[in-house]
Structure formats: structure tokens, C-alpha cells
Design brief:
The chain has 260 residues and is α/β, with parallel strands linked by helices. The chain has eleven helices and six strands. 52% of the residues lie in helices and 18% in strands. Strands 5-4-1-2-3-6 form a six-stranded mixed beta sheet, sandwiched between helices. The chain is globular.
């Protein structure tokens, strides 16, 4: 059996939220192909080339002539289809200023995007362990992020050993455009909703009802705060994949993480 993971990111304005989020869904290959074909056909019939949650939520881009009620209906339709066909939903958030504060003291710096992409693979691996899934998984990330090259190399370095490939059920990954891989749009939806939940929280507003409707009991969200990022950095040091800059002290790193 083959499963495919579709992963996208959402990065709000720094003034709105310090978090960047990566999210997506895992599908069985046959369901992914069927869902991709039907969803793409449905969008094209409505004159939409691909779904972009930011534009749908704000009424911009391809959605600028759509009424609010029409856009809400489209999102509800997409959520329903995703929940019916996907095996697992996931999202990861990273506090970007804290990440910058900690990793400035290291060489070979993995970007926040790279860490979030790989953290999403960790959530998928844990799902596979819980589900006793022993088949293969192909990971698809949206192309175009400024740190794509950094993320690609970070992933390759993490899973180069045969035992790592086996634990992640990894048979490959790629960076693709939404137009070519329609189910990346499900990742866009999850990442945007998770990111928006932080914006609402910081502004004292309730969590969006469509986010509550989207997340199922078995889906997982992970937030990487200062302590989590320090643990990750130390794990990379222990594995020989990250080195501390000359003159940097552990006290500097700890102090920086809390100031950020």
C-alpha cells in the first residue's frame, strides 16, 4: 500500500502572530487520486484554478466576486470532503522569533520552515506507528517557499540511514505546485486555519468554527516553543548534525530563547 502526505505552510504577518505553521493531510493513494480529480474538476467548474484559503477567507484574488455565503459554503464543502477521504490531519507551529533567538548561536542553521516540515513527518511517523501501518509514504510539500532548499537538505540529512527511511515509511519526497497536486490545497487549508487560530487567540477572539469543524479527534497539532526548540537543537548537536558557534555558551542560548 502507498500513502501520500500533502503539506503546505502558512505564515501570517509578524505583527499579527509570531508563529509560522505547516499542515496537511495523509491519504491512501487511491483516495488521493479520486479526491484530486473530483476536487479539481469541481473548482474548475466554478471558474477557480486552485483553492487558496487566504483569498477565499478575505474575498480576494479568484474569489473577489464571490459573496461571503458562497465562500463559506465552499470551505464547508472542502472540509467535508477532506474528512471523508483523508486518513490523518496534522499541523505544526513554530515561534519564529524564539527560533531565531536560539539558532543564532549555531552553525548549519535549519530554518523554522525546515524544522516544521520535518516535524510534520514526525507526526505522520507516529500516526503510522499507532495505526500499525507498514506500507510506504510519499511526502509532497508545496514548492516555492524561500527556504525550500534548506528544508530539502534538512529532510535528506535526517532520513539518509536505511533504518530512518523505514521508520518514516519513506520512499521519497518532492516539492510541487498546487496546480499540479490539488491536494496540497488541503494542506493550505489546515495550515491557514491553525495559523489563524493563533491570530484570533492573540487578539482575544474565539477560535474559528471552521477550524473546530476541520480537526477530528485523531488529528494532531504540535506547537514548538522555546524548550522544544532547545531540545531539538541539542538532539541535532548530539547527532553530529549541528555545531555551536565558537564562544557561544548554553546560558546565552537559554537567555536568548526567553528574551525572544
Amino acid at each position: 500500500m502507498l500513502m501520500k502526505a500533502y503539506i503546505d505552510e502558512s505564515i501570517p504577518r509578524r505583527s499579527a502572530s509570531p508563529y509560522m505553521c505547516v499542515g496537511g493531510y495523509l491519504f491512501k493513494e487511491d483516495k488521493a487520486e479520486d479526491m484530486s480529480r473530483k476536487w479539481d474538476g469541481y473548482l474548475k467548474s466554478r471558474g477557480i484554478q486552485y483553492f487558496h484559503m487566504t483569498d477565499c477567507a478575505t474575498g480576494n484574488g479568484q474569489f473577489k466576486t464571490w459573496k461571503v455565503s458562497e465562500r463559506d459554503k465552499l470551505v464547508r464543502n472542502f472540509i467535508r470532503r477532506i474528512k471523508q477521504t483523508s486518513a490523518f490531519g496534522f499541523s505544526v507551529s513554530i515561534d519564529v522569533p524564539v527560533h531565531e533567538g536560539i539558532f543564532q548561536y549555531y552553525n548549519e542553521i535549519p530554518s523554522a520552515y525546515a524544522l516544521a516540515c520535518f516535524a510534520s513527518m514526525i507526526l505522520i511517523r507516529k500516526w503510522a506507528d499507532r495505526a500499525n501501518y507498514e506500507g510506504d509514504i510519499f511526502y509532497i510539500f508545496e514548492a516555492g517557499h524561500k527556504d525550500q532548499k534548506n528544508a530539502n537538505q534538512f529532510i535528506l540529512d535526517r532520513i539518509e540511514a536505511p533504518d530512518k527511511k523505514k521508520s518514516y515509511r519513506y520512499i521519497g519526497h518532492e516539492f510541487a505546485e498546487k496546480e499540479k497536486e490539488p491536494l496540497l490545497q488541503s494542506g493550505d487549508l489546515m495550515a491557514w486555519q491553525h495559523s489563524k487560530s493563533y491570530v484570533n487567540q492573540l487578539e482575544g477572539r474565539p477560535i474559528r468554527r471552521d477550524f473546530q469543524a476541520l480537526v477530528r479527534p485523531g488529528d494532531k497539532q504540535m506547537e514548538y516553543k522555546a524548550q522544544d526548540l532547545m531540545i531539538m537543537a541539542q538532539a541535532l548537536v548530539d547527532a553530529g548534525q549541528l555545531t555551536v558557534k565558537k564562544g557561544a555558551l548554553l546560558s546565552d542560548i537559554r537567555s536568548s530563547s526567553w528574551r525572544a
